Every structure is written in structure tokens, then in C-alpha cells.
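dumping the sequnces here before i forget
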Amino acid sequence: MPVGSVLFAFVIGALICVVTGANPIAAYAGLVCGGLGIGCTQGENPALQISNTIVFFIPLVTTGVAVALPFRAGLFNIGAEGQLLAGSVACCAIGIKFADLPAPILLPMVLVGGMAAGAIWAGIAGVLKATVGAHEVVTTIMLNYVAQWLVRFLIVGGPLELAPGTSKSHPIGAGAQLPTLLPADNSVIIFGLPASVFRVHSGLFIALVAAAVFAFLLWRTAFGYEIRAVGQSQKAARYAGVSVRRTIVLTMLIAGAFSGLAGAVQIAGVDHNLTDKFFNDTTGFDAIAVALLGLGSAVGIVLAALLFGALHTGGAIMQSDAGISSNLVLVLQALILFSIAANFVGAIRRGLPFGRRASPELPTELPPAAGLMTEAAVPPPGKT
Amino acid sequence: MGHKRLRFLGVVAAAMVFTLACGGTTGGGTPTKTYKIGLVTDIGGLNDKSFNHLADVGLEKAKTDFKIQADVKESKSGDDYVPNLTDFATKNYDLVIGVGFLMQEAVGTVSGQFPNIHFAIIDGAGTDSKGTDLKHSNVQSLFFKEQDAGAMVGVIAGWLEKNGKAKKNKHVVGAVGGISIPPVNHYIAGYKWAAKMEDPSIQVLVGYSNNFTDPAKCAGVATSQINQGADVLFQVAGGCGLGVLQSAGKAGVYSIGVDADQKDADPSVIASALKKVDVATYTAIKNVVNNQFQAGALTFEIKNGGAGYSVDNLDLPAELKAELDKIEGQIKSGALTPPADIPA
Amino acid sequence: MSGVGDIVHLLFTANLWQATLAAAVLLLLPALGGVISERSGVVNIAMEGMMLTGAFFAVVADLAWHNPWLATLVAIVAGGLMATIHAVVSIQFRADQIVSGIAINIFAAGLTVFLVNRIYGLQDVGHVGPNELLPYVDIPALDQIPFFGQVVFDQNIVVYIALILLVATHIVLFRTRLGLRIRAVGEHPQAADTAGLNVYVIRYSAVITSGLLSGLSGAFLAIGISNTFVPNMTDGRGYIALAAMIFGKWTPFGAFIACLIFGLGQAIYDNNSIIHVSPYLLSMLPYLLTLIVLAGLVGRATPPAADGLPYVPGSE
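..and the predicted 3d for all of it:
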């Protein structure tokens, strides 16, 4: 099914190319070369392309998990972006303030700090959902924007700004930086290039561990059972003695911690400072597609993150090699989302595309649709 | 009549700049090698109606004059700067151009990794994470004195106010910036400084839209300034600033464009402050093609034709023309120096 | 020059409220669309994408045909087509309505810039001439009313249309049989179906209407307030409209009041050349206020009962 959805998106994307006079074969060849380093004709270095893909892959895995976990509880976390920003801010603030501390102390501090900040950001949505039933989709969208403006405030004339007019923060201390996998040395030549161009960093392991923790938490712990129970039916979960409110709040806290970790790892491993790029960052939104395409399983998320990382890296190569705007990647991403969500592939296979005649079963891969009116949102008796 | 001749003069001047910039080597002195030039835009993208677009104009111009292969990469986010620059560098491009001061750190990093590749950066230098110029021997910084261009249009605004030739003549003019960052504030600094020099009683309103892409936001700030009595408005906000020009047109007051000649954007545009990113890009490419690449800063200012102004939808009075020529001469000679920071 | 006194002084100028109303209308149109769509039970967070699409096609059409009315019609249809995708995916295929909404927004952001590149190459999109824009119209006599006349009757034509649509939406939703049906479908689709209503038709119409309204707002933005297309020029307005809809508790006039509050914040900020206000706090204001409303501090915000639930015939 997911493979079909991706194929469906690429077919429609090719049609859009043809209709607008672009060559889809050249476009996709550029994407494959750029994303995977396969079939390059313009002198791209395959190792470098794969390295760049992995750099984008790392935060997608961690934020993908942050969307997938609440999904299992029937919660839709659109706020991974805001939580990621909160994590980046905390990582930066701590990494700047305590810049002189040695790595064994400072590195855990910035990572845990990022997780805590992300957890708080998501926790606001979780608490509002559990107490007054405010829908998490809406609250997390609002929190995304608040986080974005907070970053802007901090680095454009605010307390974290390096110097007036620079629009970026001070760099974090050396002890707060995650080491790269290859030596960050311009004089060492690996795969025919200076080793420092390969930006793959040790955050890769953190991301993979995060995916493993997600799977373990969900399938091997009592809390994971509670998450799934709440996701299946809040009513049934309550009968089974599960505290729905507690589960909602805890799930959001954990999800926020994952996103916050993604932000902290991005700062510690790649950027080393907060810059204007965080105003336009879309990792947390791409994560929604990653979680959906990965069917909410750890392996699926990793594979989906790889696809989206490759698409991101490939877009730039497609543009310079084939002359086709890298915005085609956004179009493809949207088409993948439509296709997964609507299960077009299944509908085509059943040959029953439309209307009331369609078989009444819902796409089984999605958790029960998160209706805006959840049980927690029903006003308690006597209070209107 | 007058302004038509002036426009013609402007075209001649622009042609001269290009001819000078070409240095006469266009004919085909070394036809053997095809030079590869890579341009990396910042997140504004090529259709930003501002400096990314102008950089591409310079690139296209170079393509017709020299034997070059020109490729462009649009950066969708700040995450793309390093990979985009690196890709061109690994493919042994002869010159990799980064557009915009947001790319400083990325150019600093990648130029260190590829000491044999030539880099140029517009509006910045190759820096480390603390913003210090690394002064790599393979990086050319293309800086602009935006305050020169700002000063020239400031002269126009101030002169119109002093002589009662604007629409309301309350001695109030305005400037609408995108975000309060150096390239924006340099323009406004020169503008305010020159307007005050022309008309000491003038009040220069300075506002920011906090945005570079949404014309409606800039239109709001512009309308507020018009309500305060401003009748000449200078936009320094890229695509957002187009809203300034249009609000001025709607209110029947004058406006001033930025970066490129924006006379077509609205009939209210009487002049534009020019930052000739196209000339800078072209010059950098020409230098590489002629084997004359030079590391370090190259500043584009009014003196070398890298900054300036155009008179657009305005019948330029002879006295104003004389005043503009006088000030331009004094800036060129160094007798007057427009400030880089906005004066009080 | 800063201070509370300056802001208070500003509050007594007609200019400020004129600007407030114009800014509010940009949000009101998609917010009304959201109200109609969600009242019928289809969650719509796709107003941003529909509006952006409308803005883009308004400019393309106006540049091609030099007629703002035709261009506005094209923008409305373009918004409606985006909404139709949302409707097909979320009603017909019963996809998650939030996923579909996100996909619409990503799709619009990517497609518009992709098409700019395909149609105009790397060149400037171009500018619509001043006589080919949606006009500003003073209503004779009424615009002479002191203060109020300038605020309400000296506006772009779209402002008047939006105010009429506001009243019309309220009347249709709460005073007509059609409105009753829309709300019935949004609250109890099974019961409505049993009563002989076609849930699908009503939901389709409601969602597409939201696209038409968002497209109109996009046209107002692109060829009313400005005269060209700039990538991502909607700048999150669709999401602020979503906030306004919730803030207004899914009612047209409630949403309008929210739009006025958000518009007022923007209009005050527009005066930053004479008063000092933090752009950050004001930019956060719509989102913070919405969070406060959702937190229940200003009464409850309760959506229609079946909002967000795909309708499966025969299921209970």
C-alpha cells in the first residue's frame, strides 16, 4: 500500500510535468541521483549525496516518531515543528550559556534540555486536550506559530542574537556539539573529497535509538498498551481501567520530547547556532507525511524518512541538472499524503472509486479518525 | 520630454557600465575553455523581484557575452545552502556565487573545504559561526554601499518637499523596511540623511513590515505613513514592498522603488534606488573568465557604477537634476559620505 | 513617541479602523468558508492553500486578460477546485480530513511556485496595471457620515461583498431550511440521512463554498491590495482564519469579531513608524488569544458534533 501510494504520486507528478512542458524522466533521474547518488551523469559524488540525504533523514525519523506515537493514541500532533523549535531554542540557550563545560557534561545537558522544552511545548496541548477537550490539531498549530515568532524574537534583536543585524545566535560551545562520523578535517580525503564535507553526524544513532524506543514503548510496555487502547476507543479504555487523561498528557509529553530532541540534535550536530532558517523550517510538517507513510511502525518510519530525506536532497540536483523547480518535491509530497490518506490505490484495485457504492470499510492503516468532538470534549454534566 | 531624454541617458549609462565591466574582452580572446558558473539563491528564490532575480540577470548577461555554462540552484530553506554550494564545488565549477548575507557561514565553511574553487558572495563574506571573516584566499566578497543609492533618492524626496513639488507638502516622507537588518537599514540611512540635508524641516518616518513576501503587510505600514502626512514613500522590503508602491499610487502620492528599476510596478514610482547586483555578478564572472579573480572585498558604490538611482515616472525639474548631479559628484569625490547607520 | 497614550489616540482615528476592517476582511472570507465547511461536518484547515491558489490564478488571469472581474472569477474557481480535491479525498474516499487539509496546503505552496517557474521562467511574474485591479469604491452619501463613513464606506469592493456574504452566511445558516440541513449533517449525519437528506451533496457543497470564499480572498490580496503574485504571499492567513473561526465558536459573526480583533492588532502594528510596539508580541497575538479561548478562559469552544468524522452510510 505505501509503495503504491508513492508510485501513484510519482505518476501524477509526471503528468503535471508533461502538462507543463517539463521532462518527467529528466526530473526523476535528477531526484534519484541527488537523493541516492545512483545514476548521476553530471559528476555528483554519490557518497556526498547519500551523506546529505542522511543529514535530512535524522530529524525526520525523530519527528516522525513524535507524530506517530500520538497517532496511536488517536491524537494528531501537528505541532512537531513547534516542539522542534522549542528544543532548538533550549539546546542553543544552554549550549551558549554553559559554553565552557566539557562535552560529557554539556552534551547530555543540551539534549535533555531540548527534550524538556519540546515536552513542555507539546504538554500544553496535551493538558488542554485532557482537561478542557481543546482539540490538539488546533492548539498545536497555534503553538507552532508562537514558537516561530519566539525564535524570531530571540535572534532578531533579542537576547540570543550574536551581534545587532546578524539574525543568528551565538554558536554553542564545542562541548555541546555532536561529533561527525568522519573527521571534520579539510585535509583528510575520503571518497575523493575533503572529509569535512560529509556532514553525517552521530545524531544518526540517536535517531535510530529513538525509533527503537518508540517501537519498544508501544509494543512492549504497559503504557504502550494504554496508548493503543485509548487510540482504539476511549470508552473501552476507560472500562479497562486506563486513565484516558493521564495517557493523553503523557503521550504528548513523550512526543514533544522526541521532537525537542530532533531540534537539539539538529543544532548540536549540524547548525551549531540558531539561524533564520528556523523561520522557514518544515521538518515537523514533513514528519506528518513520514509518520503516515511509515504506517506508524518504527521500520516504516525509518524507510519513509529515508524517502523524504532523499527527495529533499534530490530536489536541488533536479533543479540544476534538469532545470525543473525543486518545488516539484512539495507537489510530490502532497500527492503522497492524498494518496495514503484516501487510499486511492486500494480504491483503484477494488474498482469502486466513488460514492455510496464504495465498500464501507475505512482505510485500516489509519487509526480511528480523530473526530474534532472527542469524549474528553463533552462538557462535564452540570457545567455548560 | 525631459524625462524621456533622461531615461535615454540612463540606458546609455547602464550600457556604459556594462561595456566598462566587460573590459573589451568579449570578442573571444580565449575560446578554448567553457567556464562553469554556479549560482545559489537564498530562500527568496529566483522570482523574488529583488536581488536573487538581479543576480540571475547578471548571470544571463554573462552567458551571452562569455563562453560559460551557467547553472542555478534555488535554496528552499537554510538547510540547503551548504549542500547546494558543495555540489557546485565538487563538480569543479570555476566560480560558485552565493547570493545574500544569510549564506555567509555556509560560504565560509565550503570555501575552506575547497581551496581550489573560487567563490563569490553577495552582501557578505565567508565567515565562521561567530561572524568573523575567515578571509579565505578563494573568496570574493561583493559588498554594496546601499546608502549611496538611498542618499540619491533621499535627495529627490527632500528636494520635492523643500520646494513644494510633492503632493501634500507637509514636509513628511516615509521609508518602509522589511526587517531591521543591515542591508535594509543602509538604504534607509542614506535616504534619511540626504532628505534632511535637502530639507532640514523634514520628518522622515521609518517603519518595518517584519516581512519580505506579503505585499498587504507593507501596504498597511505605507498607508499609516500616508495618513501621517507622508507623500513620498521609499520601499526597502523586496516583494512585500510592492504593496508600498501600490498604496502610494492609490493614495495619489509618490513612491520610490528599490534594488531594481521598479517603474513598471506602479505609476506612482518616481525613482528607484539601484543596487546593481547584476553588475556585481557579471563582474565576478568576468574576472574569473579573464583569469583575474581577486580574493577579498569588492565594494559596489556610486563611484564605480555599482549603486545608483533611476528616475522613473517623474518629469525631472532641471534644478533637481542639477542638485542630484551635484550630490552625486560630491559622494563620488568623497566630499560627502552617506552614513551606514540610520541617523537620529 | 511610544506609550499607551499614543495607542489610545490612534484608536480614535478613522484611519486605524479603516485599515482594521480591510485586514479583517482578508481573514473573514476564509473564516466564513471554514464555518460553513465545519458546520457541515468537514474539518477544513486548507484555507491557506485555497487562498494561495486563488491569489496565484488571479494574477495569471489578470495579466493574460486584463480584466479584474474575470480574474477574480478564475481565482474563485481555482479556490473551489482545490476545495473539490479536499472534498473528494475526505468525503468520497473518507480520508482523514486533517491529513487532506495539510496536503492541500503543501500542494498549493509547491504548485504555485512550480507554475511560476514553468510559466514565467526565471523572470518577474509582472505587475497588473492600476486600472485592472479590483477597485476601491466610495459609497456616495454614506461615505460622508463622520468617522463611520470612512471606516465602512470607503473601502475596496471586496470589503462590501464580504460584509454582505457575512450577513448572508448568518441568515442561511441560522434562518433557513438549507442552514438547518447543513447543521443537521454536521451534528447528526445518520439522523439527517434517515430524514432523507443527501449528506454527501450537502458536505460537498459546503466544502466547495469554503474554497470559493478563500479564492475570493486570495484575489483580494493579489489584485486588490497588491498587484502581483509573490511566492507564499498569504503568509499564514488561512491559519489565522482557522483561529478566527474557532475563536468565534463556529459562527459567522463570532468569526468576524475575531477577525476584527486580529485585524486591529495588525493595524496597530502598521503604525510602528510613529508608535513603538513589539512586532513579536503582536504577531503572536492571534495564536495566543486562540489558545486562551481554547483553554476555556473565555467560555467553551465546542465544534459541531460530527466535525471531522467521515460519514459512512448505515453506520452508527
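Chain A has one domain: 2-370.
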